[in-house]
DNA sequence: AGCCGCACAGCAAGCGCTTTCTACGCAAGA
DNA sequence: TCTTGCGTAGAAAGCGCTTGCTGTGCGGCT
């Protein structure tokens, strides 16, 4: 027995149409009438029925944000920035949108299901964050979905994700390749010649690009890479710990370990320390992302800072139509090398 | 020009009613008919109109998760666990719900606005995580809102938040007081008598409870507390850094620093180190929560582990009606003291 | 004085789905 | 053979809102 528009109308002695117009503020209503309506709304504690409104108006105030792992600050920071711009509540009037964060857990199926769910809700916009899975059929399915969404008027923005061709989706891509290369060049510059690499999960764009950057740096320096120097794992600390032990087992003469991201790097540090190796005297370590805790590691982590919050904010604004998309609908966001205590001259 | 139920019905040569029933699977439909309908759905790429469906059925598949700060893993971990149970996609059939994470940024207004938005969407359930703001009028407003929600059939669960009386909301409360007490007792047991405390923002239940636990331990040990030993800040690293410098300035003879949470503790460690103090030889440090990175600090952090993921999962299940609420609608979740390298015998 | 146009307000037709109630056909029981 | 009843499908009445179009009253114009 909830209160409806009609109840409010009756109480304010006006027609439902008028109440609707007062609430939406998109049609002239005499001040006195508005006043009366607003009072009735208040007295009856009326709350608009979202679905009904969305149905009639054929629009919705939902904005979806897809992330791979909400427990990872990498995504949390971006999501936070995006949501702040979406305005959730607090944004300028008229833009009261419900920004919803959907956690795909990195699973292609869930990603697709969430997209369908958002499509079903006729979401106003969708922001996809983080690397994409490189499985061909899945990529095609996602692309098809995105195309459908844009066709239906949903704005689609990719944040920290490679462009999706033929989808009209705006892409803010992180320069993972460039960042990876800078990082490894830095280590090579210090004199390292035997570098281990702990990569993320295979079949992920982020993983591949960072690794490619690393290899490009090696190649440019004329260093021939030993296949034993690369190990794949997940993007978490645990994985870094285990992978490092594995690397050490394979080749104890490594003088540097480059990790897929900061969490992995932290795990690597732990493993090295437990193996009795000092950082950076015995082995240098480098991460990626520059998450807040990275500066607190001991020694603090050499890494590549990605402007997560800035990129997220921009993606949010574009999704809201408050900022022009970049020319060509694609922009590359660069990382910045942060040289800190965990990298140093190799032991000899 | 989107495809509607009627289009599918026409194509499958059945009535819209039948299509609806096939899609919802809540009514007997002959296998051959179902087959035909499903094929039509597929061929037309039909996607159900969420708002329309929600309107007609007077139910929704939205579940809201309110968090104070999505960029903080404390909330990220809980949100992730909750969402996994909500099923989002991937949950068992029939329960395909859209779990949405709403970031309040700790602001009472936004919290309220989000609740209204969820109420407007006729959310199936709402989970509020983390400490509440202790502002009286605001607390009353939230309580009123929660009451409205439960009355409207929305299940409300509080996770890591104190019970809200008279709201029929289920509460899984963290024993912040007990955890705080254990932690400080541990330090006292090591011989500390001069302990600094970096508290969270005032007017927050979590802040107050942890501090009360700390003070209870001091009182029980007959230690008289110096008002200079407590500093308030935010729940982030930066705040811990600054507060520690302040504490050191006020009383350089402190032998231990207890922080409101792990991030703050990390900031404290950084400040101590920069001040030339060794941990734990010169000053012991303790955190709270036991977030993943805490074990990687050097030395690793003594803290109180809160079963964030477990509590979140349980909250999620209760919200979905898949688990019985605890007796009395209230359960207390205890923390576990994790003694690690950052705490030791005080310098003399 | 007569007419026009403007500023508001109401009517009513949907929006696309769910669900109750009714209709139909057929097999089984009387 | 006639009635029951079950298994299925359809007709149609909304769900609560938005919005194009249709009034209505009044001030200003000629």
UniProtKB/TrEMBL annotation, chains A, B:
<dbReference type="InterPro" id="IPR028082">
    <property type="entry name" value="Peripla_BP_I"/>
</dbReference>
<dbReference type="Pfam" id="PF13377">
    <property type="entry name" value="Peripla_BP_3"/>
</dbReference>
<dbReference type="GO" id="GO:0003700">
    <property type="term" value="F:DNA-binding transcription factor activity"/>
</dbReference>
<dbReference type="InterPro" id="IPR000843">
    <property type="entry name" value="HTH_LacI"/>
</dbReference>
<dbReference type="GO" id="GO:0000976">
    <property type="term" value="F:transcription cis-regulatory region binding"/>
</dbReference>
<protein>
    <submittedName>
        <fullName>LacI family transcriptional regulator</fullName>
    </submittedName>
</protein>
<dbReference type="InterPro" id="IPR046335">
    <property type="entry name" value="LacI/GalR-like_sensor"/>
</dbReference>
<dbReference type="Pfam" id="PF00356">
    <property type="entry name" value="LacI"/>
</dbReference>
<keyword id="KW-0805">Transcription regulation</keyword>
<keyword id="KW-0238">DNA-binding</keyword>
<keyword id="KW-0804">Transcription</keyword>
<feature type="domain" description="HTH lacI-type">
    <location>
        <begin position="3"/>
        <end position="57"/>
    </location>
</feature>
<dbReference type="InterPro" id="IPR010982">
    <property type="entry name" value="Lambda_DNA-bd_dom_sf"/>
</dbReference>
């Amino acid at each position: 027995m909830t209160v409806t528009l009609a109840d409010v109308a009756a109480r304010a002695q006006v027609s439902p149409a008028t109440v609707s117009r007062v609430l939406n503020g998109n049609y002239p209503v005499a001040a006195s009438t508005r006043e009366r309506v607003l009072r009735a709304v208040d007295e009856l504690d009326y709350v608009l029925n979202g679905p009904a409104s969305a149905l009639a108006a054929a629009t919705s105030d939902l904005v979806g944000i897809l992330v791979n792992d909400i427990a990872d600050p990498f995504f949390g920071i971006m999501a936070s920035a995006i949501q702040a711009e979406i305005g959730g509540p607090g944004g300028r009037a008229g833009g009261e949108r419900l920004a919803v964060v959907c956690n795909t857990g990195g699973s292609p199926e869930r990603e697709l299901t969430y997209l369908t769910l958002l499509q079903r809700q006729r979401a106003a916009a969708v922001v996809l964050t983080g690397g994409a899975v490189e499985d061909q059929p899945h990529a095609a399915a996602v692309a098809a979905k995105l195309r459908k969404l844009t066709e239906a008027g949903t704005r689609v923005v990719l944040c920290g994700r490679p462009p999706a061709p033929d989808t009209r989706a705006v892409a803010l891509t992180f320069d993972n390749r460039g960042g990876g290369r800078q990082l490894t060049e830095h280590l090579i510059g210090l004199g390292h010649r035997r570098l281990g690499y702990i990569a993320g999960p295979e079949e992920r764009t982020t993983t591949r690009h960072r690794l490619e950057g690393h290899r490009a740096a090696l190649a440019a320096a004329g260093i021939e890479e030993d296949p034993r120097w690369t190990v794949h794992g997940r993007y978490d600390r645990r994985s870094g710990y285990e992978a490092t032990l594995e690397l050490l087992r394979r080749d104890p003469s490594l003088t540097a370990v480059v990790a897929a991201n900061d969490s992995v790097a932290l795990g690597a540090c732990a493993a090295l320390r437990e193996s009795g190796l000092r950082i950076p005297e015995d082995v240098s370590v480098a991460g990626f992302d520059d998450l807040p805790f990275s500066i607190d590691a001991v020694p603090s982590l050499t890494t590549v800072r990605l402007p997560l919050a800035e990129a997220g904010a921009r993606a949010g604004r574009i999704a809201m139509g408050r900022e022009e998309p970049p020319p060509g609908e694609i922009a590359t966001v660069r990382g910045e090398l942060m040289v800190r205590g965990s990298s140093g001259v190799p032991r000899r």
